Amino acid sequence: MTFKSIAFVAARQPEARAAEKRLKARYAHVTPKRADVVVALGGDGFMLRTLHRFMDGDVPIYGMNRGSIGFLMNAFDEDGLPERLARADAVELHPLRMTAIDHRGKEHQALAINEVSLLRQSRLAAKLRIQVDGVVRLEEVICDGALVATPAGSTAYNRSAHGPIVPLGAGVLALTTINAFRPRLWRGALLPHDATVVFHVLDEDTRPVSAVADYTEVRRVARVVVREDRSLTPTLLFDPEHNLEERIVREQFLP
After folding, report:
1. pLDDT computed for residue 25 by the predictor
2. C-alpha count within 13 angstroms, C-beta hemisphere, residue 132
3. Measuring CA to CA, which of 21, 105, 225, 253 is 20 to 30 A from 77?
4. Which CATH architecture has domain 96-228?
5. Which sequence positions are flagged as catalytic?
């Protein structure tokens, strides 16, 4: 594919801002509103913010790593950028939509590229009831929290919580507990991508729980509904030799 207009955006780190300045001096560029591709300079956190920023548009995002981890980024190289963009592979992502009802009954909505997580807010473990597609699957889970992860996010917090790594084309979501105490041996489940997961917070007054969609947090929730939103399809671009699908497969064989 050929892109006629490029926009550059950068994280606040000096390394990212310096790279943006050099690239703008080297390549013709436009503002993000006029671009047909956005080049994001930073780490995975900045890529998440960039994907959220352009969630409603049709502009693909090509990241170059000027941060720490860079799982969602391509290698940084100032040379041959138009050629790299032209041969890049496109990956469409489908975010999760979180609907959280807080303890006052107020509804909050947020989107997540990686995961929606519920986390205890106090020294006391959380008590959750988990319902999938209208069926209560676990009457009570005592834990530090639980999460639902997309395939793209399955290598992030989900993996740290010992959840499964999910290939992009698998058509499933990962439901994973965080430090479960009861039932001790239950670690989670793989669910169809169109499943609706509802978390009911038990003992919400004495065991407060927060809900987080990527970086949007709602405190003291009573109920959280999570489902995939297929009406939104943010697109990432990857160099063919470092495509996201291959990275996710490779992660499963790392020690």
Report:
1. 97
2. 14
3. 253
4. Sandwich (2.60)
5. 44
> What b/e readout covers 32-50, taking b as 16+ CB neighbours within 10 angstroms?
beebebbbbbbbbebbbbb
- Look-up of token digits 């992502």: 93
Q: Which residue has the tokens 């995975």?
A: 44
Give the span between the Cα atoms of 70 and 66, in whole angstroms: 8
Residue type, 6: I
Residue 41 exposure: Cα atoms within 13 Å on the Cβ side: 23
For 23, the token pair is: 């690239």
Contact residues for 113 (Cβ-Cβ < 8 A; gap 6+): 48, 51, 52, 93, 95, 150, 152, 153, 214, 234
Q: 125 near 181, Cβ under 8 Å? A: yes
First CA to last CA across the chain, in angstroms? 37
Query: In residues, how long is the chain?
Result: 255
Q: Please tell me the pTM assigned to this model.
A: 0.90
Distance of alpha carbon 196 from the chain centroid = 17
The per-residue pLDDT string of the chain (255 residues; one tens digit each, 9 = 90 and over) reads 788 899 999 999 999 999 999 999 999 999 999 999 999 999 999 999 999 999 987 899 999 999 877 788 999 999 999 999 999 999 999 999 999 999 999 999 999 999 999 999 999 999 999 999 999 999 999 999 999 999 999 999 999 999 999 988 889 999 999 999 999 888 899 999 999 999 999 999 999 999 999 989 999 999 999 999 999 999 999 999 877 788 788 888 877
Annotate 140-156 with DSSP letters as a single string.
EEEESEEEEE-TTTTTT
